[in-house]
Structures
1.
Amino acid sequence: MSEAGPVTKQRNPHDPDERGHFGPYGGRFMPEALIGALDELSAEYDKARLDPAFTEEFTRLLRDYANRPSLLTEAPRFAEHAGGARIFLKREDLNHTGSHKINNVLGQALLTKRMGKKRVIAETGAGQHGVATATACALMELDCTIYMGEVDTERQALNVARMKLLGAEVIPVKTGSRTLKDAINEALRDWVTNVADTHYLLGTAAGAHPFPVMVRNFHTVIGEEARRQILEQTGRLPDAVAACVGGGSNAIGIFHGFIDDPDVRLVGFEPGGHGIASGEHGATLSEGTPGVLHGARSYLLQDDDGQTIEAYSISAGLDYPGVGPEHAWLKDTGRAEYRSVTDDEAMDAFQLLSRTEGVIPAIESAHALAGALVLGRELGPDGLIVVNLSGRGDKDMDTAAKHFGYVEES
Amino acid sequence: MSLKRLFEQVKAEDRAALIGYLPAGFPTVAESKDLLAAMVDGGCDLIEVGVPYSDPVMDGPTIQVAADTALRNGFRLRQTFDVVESVTGHGGRAVVMTYWNPVHHYGVDAFARDLAAAGGDGLITPDLVPDEAEEWLAVSETHGLDRIFLVAPSSSEERIDRTVKAASGFVYATAVMGVTGARDQVGAGAAELVRRTKAHTTLPVGVGIGVRSGEQAAEVAAFADAVIVGSAFVTAAEGGPGAVRALAEELAGGVRQKSGRATVAP
Ligand SMILES: Cc1ncc(COP(=O)(O)O)c(C=O)c1O
C-alpha cells in the first residue's frame, strides 16, 4: 500500500467545519469538563495528520500488523441469489482481530501515545471494538478498561474472554438497556473523572467532534482499497456500495472511497430487528428524528419527550439508538440511502454466505449482505455491488446456533 | 433579572446562597412537589428542578436511580413546568437543570416560553456549552431567562472567559472532575476554580458536586457565592419531606457560618 490517503491531507472537501458540523449535525454537546480533552485531541490529531512520521507509522501498522490491504473477493455462488448481479466482498473480516475496528483503534492508540496518556477506555457492543482496543493496548503498553453492556457480555462471551486474555479489564454495565448505549454512558462517566491521564478510544464515527471525522479518516483506507481493487478486477466502478450501519464507522469508511463518484450509490443497512412495525429495531436513520445524544446532533430514536428509545437488534454491534452525524448529513443531502434489514433476513444471509462461499460473516455484516441480495435483484444481471464484510462471525456462533437450532436450548 | 436580585440580597446578608436540587417527578410528580416545598421551607434560596433523562452521563448512581424512578413512574416533560410552578407558588425560586436533548426536542423557544410562564428564572445546561448555544442565547433574551453554564477544573482561562461572558444569573463551578454524588470531602480544587472564575467575571459563582453536610456547606460558603447540593437531597428524599427539610435547615445554617476552612485536604 503506497499511501494512507486522507490521513495525510489537512482538509478534504467532505470535512466538517472547524467545530465539527456536517450541515446542521455533529458539534460538541458535551460537559465543559470534557471540552479541554476534546480540544487537546483535536489539536493532536490535526498535527498528526500532517506529520509524515505519524502517517508512516500508521500505514506500517496497518500493513505489517493488521494485514492490510484486505482482499476484495468475488462471491459468485452467493450472487446467484441476488438476481445475477456480481457481488464483491471487501474482506475486513481478514484483518487482525477479525473486523474493520482495528483501523481506527491503531490510529487512536498512536494518538494516545503522542498525547502522553497511559490509560485507554472504550465501549464495546459486539466486543469487536473492545478486542481491537485491548489488542492495541497490549501492543503499545497501555492500560485498558472496556465497558460492555451486561446483555452483550452474555451474547458475546467469547469476546469477553479474548479481552481478558489480552490484559484488559472488562466492566459489565448494568444500567439502562444494558447494551451499547449504556456502555458509552458509563465510559463517558469514567472519562470525565479520569480525563487527565485517560483517552476515550471511541469505536465508531459518532460522538463529539473530533471523533466523527477522525474515526472516518482512519477507516477511509477501506474505501480507497476497495475502489482500486474493483477497478483492477472488473475495470469499472460498482453501481452500489453496501454496508451495515450501527454507529456508522465501517459504512463511512467504505463510502468515502466512492463519495466523489456520483454514479456509485452508497447504501447503508440498519438493523430492522423484529421488523419496523414491531417497534423493536435500531433503524435510527430510517425511523428516527434529529436530536442530541453522546455529544453530537444527529438522528436518534427518541420518544415525544426526547427520551432515548432503547434499540433492539440480534446483532450487538448494531444495537444502538444513535448514529454518526455525517450519515445524518448524507441522508439529508441524498448522497447516501439508508434502509433496514430484519434479524431474520440478516440471519438468512449469514447462513447463505457461509454455505455458498465458505465465509462466515459477523451478524452485523450479514445485514449488509442481506441488503445486497435485495439491491442485486433491483439492479438486475448487469449490476455490480461491493459489500463491506466488516467482520467475521466466530463471535456469533452462540447466537447462530440458537437461531438455527443447532444446539438444544437449555 | 430576578437571580441578580437574589444574589444581591444574599450578599447584603454576608452569606452564601443555598441552592438545592431534586428531579421533578421523583418519586412521583405529586411527591416531588412536596419535597421541593420542604426544601423552600427549610431555607433553600433557589431550587434546581432537574429534568429526568434517559441518558444522564454527568450523574452518578444516586441521581441516575432517581431519574430512572421518575421516568418509570410516568414522568412527562411538560410536568416540569407544573413542578416549577409549584415552587414559585410556594414562595420559592426555581431554575431548571436539564440535559439538552429534551429541550431540543420540545423546541428551545417553546421550552423557554413555558418555563418563563411557570415563573422559572433560567436553565442550567450540563451538556450545552456556549459554543453550541446560539439559539438558546437568543431565546433566553426574548423570554428574560438566565443562562447558567458550567466551568470545570479542566477549563482553560480562555474557556472560562468565553463561558462567563455567555452566562447570566450565576456561574456553576463543578468542584471536582467527575459525576454527581455526595463525597466525604469537598474537592480541594474548588476554591482555586472559584478564584480563577472570579478573575473573569463579577457574576456570582456557585460550587456544586459533593456537598452533603452543614459543615461542608460552611467550608464552601467561605469562598463561593452559592453552595449547590444535589445527591444529598436525593438521598434524604427517602425520608420524605421532613428529612429533606431537616437537611435544608442544616445546610442553610452552614451557608451562614463560613467556617473559613476553605481548602480541605484532597
Ligand atoms: C463486525 C462489525 N461490523 C459493524 C459494526 C457496527 O459498527 P459501525 O457501524 O461503527 O461500523 C460492528 C460493531 O461492533 C462490528 O463488530
Note: Chain B touches chain A at residues 53-58, 60, 64, 71, 76-77, 100-106, 126-129, 131-132, 149-156, 159, 163, 174, 177-179 (CB under 8 Å).
2.
Amino acid sequence: MEKVISLIQYFSQTSDFEKILHPYILKLHRVAFRLCGSVSDAEDLVQDVLVKVYPKRQTLASLENPGPWLVKVLYRTFIDQRRRMSRSPLHLLLNSHDEENNPVLDSLPCSNRGPEEISENNQVREKLMRAINSLNLDQKHLCILHDVEGYTLNELEEILNTPIGTLKSRLHRARASLRKILQHETF
Amino acid sequence: MNCKQALEYRDDYIDGYLSQEEKVAVREHLNNCPHCHAAFKRDEEMLQALRALPVPAPSPGFISHSLQHAQSAGRRRIPKSLAPLLSAAMAACLVLWLVSGLPRMHDQQAQELPSAQVIIKIDEEKIVNVVVNAPRDLADAHVTIELPEQLEMVGFPGKREIEWKTDLRKGKNLLSLPLVAKRTGNVEVVARIDHENKSKLLKLAMKIHNSHARENLHDDKYMV
Ligand SMILES: [Zn+2]
C-alpha cells in the first residue's frame, strides 16, 4: 500500500500548528505574566515555549485539551530559566531590588472607572500582589496557577508534577498566609 | 458539625472539592453560625479578588508573530547528530549516501537513482514523485527537501529548504513534490529523511530546459 505524503499535509500541519496554538497564546501569556511579572519577560517566555513545542506539534494535535500540557511546558521552561539565571550573580543582585519596585504593580492597566474607585482598586490589588509575593515560591506559583488562573488541583498535579496531596496542603498553607496578611482588607 | 470542623473544610468548600454530602453539612453549619458564615464569605471575596487581578495584553501582533517565529525557528533546526555530516555531504557534492543506515531501509548501502534525469521546462509545474521504501513504520520521520535556486516548490516561493514531519508506513511511501523551474540548468534536488538519529539522503538530478522538453515524465517515480 502506498501512502501519499503530499505537500498538502505539510500545509495542513503548518496551519494546524497555528490553528491549535492560536487560542492558547493569550492564556499562556497571562500565566507567563503572572509568573514573570513583566509583559516583555512573559512574551519571551511564551516565545521560548512555542519554539519548544513546534517539533512536538503532532503530540499537541493528538491532545484533547492541550491547555494544561502547554502550561506544563511553560512552567518547566520558566523554572529552568530561573534556575539558570539564579546562577548568574548579576541577576541575584537585581533580584534583591524586586521588593521595592515590583514590575507587576507598575504594569497593571487602568480601567474605565472613576479615579477614587481606581485608586481603591489599585490599593487592594497592590496588597493582594504583595501578599502573593510574600509566599514562598512553591506556594506563590501554586496560588497563581490555582487561585488566580483557576487551574484545578487535578490539572496542577500534572502541570507541576507534584502529588495532589502535597499540592492541597501547600495550597491550604498559602491560603492561611494570605488570610493572615489580608485580614484587615476589604475586597 | 462544629466550627472547627467547618473551618477545616473552608478551602475545599470555596474550591468546590467537597462531595455533595460534605457540602450540605457545611452549608447547614453556615446557616446557623454567623461567625463561620462571615469567614467563608471573606474567603470567597478574597478568591474573587485574586481571580480578578488584571493582566496587561501582550504587544500588538505578538500572537501571529510568535507563532510564525516558532515555525521558522523549528524548520531551521537540524538534528544535532546530523549537522557535521550534512556539511560533509554538501562538500561531497550531494552524492547519495547513507548514514549509519536507516535500518535496512534498503538492502544496499547506497542506492543509485535512475540514471535518467528528470526533465522539466521553465515555468512548467511538474510533480516529481519519490518513493521511499521504509523497512518498518517510522513515526515522526523528518523529511527535508533542498532545492537549487533554479527550482521552486509550488506554494513555497523563494524557499530553498522545506521540512516537515510525517509518519512513514512500512513499505512504499510516495513523496510528491510539485516543482516549478525558474531558470535553466542541470541541477539537483536533495531529499533527506531523518528518523531518530538515522538519516538517509538522496539526490535527484534534474535538467531544466527552455522548452521542447520530453513529455510524459509526469508520473515517473524514483525509488529510495
Ligand atoms: Zn461556626
Note: Strands of chain A lie at 3-5.
